[in-house]
Design goal:
five-stranded antiparallel beta sheet; 3 domains; 6 helices; Jelly Rolls; single chain
């Protein structure tokens, strides 16, 4: 009898549903949104709506669930397992399921008095008060219609010695019309010469390049790109007396727009600083046939001196679909650096590694990229498709794997 009763109780326990704790905004969802979403989804940032309180999150609960399940948000392009990066924006499967279950349950609030406080963001510069601020010399007017414009503004620095810049933060003056900003360095005065011949402020080019010989770069800004502080002892070299040539890519919005973008510079404080070197594996000799859905382009770069790789930045235009970059040392196994499997021209970033990667002299850095020049590619700017090769215009193509390195003889990472 006791044995029978034990069996009955055991069976009953098996069929009694397990009672799960309710998933609520205050306890479960707010910490995820605060950690992964609010850097962009807040007032004045690049995202189209805020997610800074319960009402915001509830209004977008369905979309949050759909976009995170499809791994479109948070935006993080590198494939898992190809490189280990700082500031990775990934959700676990458990977190994604939690967001889905919460939305399907009607987005319960929970005890809102127990919601963790939102992270504190700087009002203005993300990295705090800068050492120096530069900005466009005048406010620029963008006409309502026409093709995109690549306008270059000349900003003298007037420093009487070489400077090293550890971090850069760009503030677009008008996010409705500014697509991206790139900061070139000019030590020959060529930018000034071109600007003197242009009736408008600065000068314009027909494509994405600055149209001059440059002495380097201070990085830039694009949607999604967050300012990054280089490691202690590494900096962008800003040569004495150099002009910053600020390239601003403007959209046309159908309305007259105005912009006066500016830049914060944070200087290195270390006694000795190694200059950051921006190299690349690049292929400019290709032609993508019209109608080709998966056209492969390869490129490579051999490392001449021992170096540490700090970051990579894949770059293509609208026809790009994926890019994989691998480093092959003279001895040892290949190193998988990065793989962007679902390229998006409107969401590009510089991907910094958790630990610098040592690349001995003779290492071959190679990439393979694929392009879709078919009519079925919704991003294809050509209808019907036409053969597309290298060029500065957005409707042309590029194939570059930028490599952010520092000479191993000048810099040793801190463990």
């Amino acid at each position: 009898m006791k044995k029978f009763l034990f069996i009955v109780l055991a069976l009953a326990a098996m069929i009694v549903p397990c009672v799960q704790a309710e998933i609520t905004y205050s306890k479960d969802i707010a910490p995820i949104i605060q950690r992964e979403c609010q850097s962009c989804h807040r007032q004045g940032e690049v995202a189209p709506f805020a997610l800074t309180d319960y009402q915001d999150a509830k209004a977008w609960a369905t979309e949050i669930a759909e976009y995170t399940k499809a791994r479109l948000m948070p935006p993080w392009k590198p494939a898992k397992g190809f490189g280990h990066f700082k500031n990775e924006r990934r959700l676990s499967e458990k977190e994604i399921q939690m967001l889905t279950d919460w939305a399907e349950a009607g987005a319960p609030a929970g005890d809102l008095s127990k919601t963790p406080p939102n992270p504190k963001f700087h009002n203005g510069w993300k990295l705090g008060d800068p050492d120096h601020i530069v900005e466009m010399p005048v406010e620029y007017e963008i006409e309502p219609e026409g093709e995109d414009e690549y306008r270059h503004f000349i900003i003298p620095t007037n420093f009487d010695t070489d400077m090293f810049v550890q971090a850069v933060d760009v503030q677009p003056g008008n996010r409705k019309t500014v697509h991206h900003v790139i900061l070139y360095l000019d030590t020959k005065g060529q930018g000034r010469e071109r600007a003197a011949k242009d009736p408008k402020p600065g000068y314009v080019t027909e494509g994405t390049g600055p149209g001059i010989d440059i002495a380097g770069s201070l990085g830039g800004w694009a949607p999604g790109l967050q300012p990054y502080v280089l490691p202690e002892g590494v900096g962008y070299l800003l040569p004495k007396g150099a002009d910053i040539v600020m390239q601003v890519h403007y959209y046309r919005t159908g309305h007259t727009e105005h912009d006066q973008s500016r830049v914060a510079l944070y200087f290195n404080k270390t006694e000795k600083t190694a200059p950051l070197q921006i190299d690349s594996a690049i292929n400019s000799e290709f032609k993508i046939p019209a109608g080709e859905k998966k056209f492969a382009v390869q490129a490579s770069r051999r490392v001449k001196k021992d170096a540490y790789l700090l970051a990579t930045m894949p770059h293509m235009h609208l026809l790009g679909r994926d890019m994989q970059i691998i480093a092959t040392p003279p001895t040892g196994d290949p190193i998988e650096l990065i793989w962007i499997q679902d390229w998006d021209f409107n969401w590009q970033d510089i991907y910094y590694y958790r630990k610098p990667i040592f690349l001995p002299a003779g290492t071959n850095v190679s990439l393979v990229a694929h392009f879709d020049n078919s009519a079925s590619n919704p991003a294809n700017p050509h209808n019907p498709p036409v053969p597309v090769g290298w060029g500065d215009k957005t409707t042309d193509e590029m194939c570059i794997g930028f490599l952010y390195m520092v000479d191993a003889g000048e810099y040793q990472p801190v463990e």
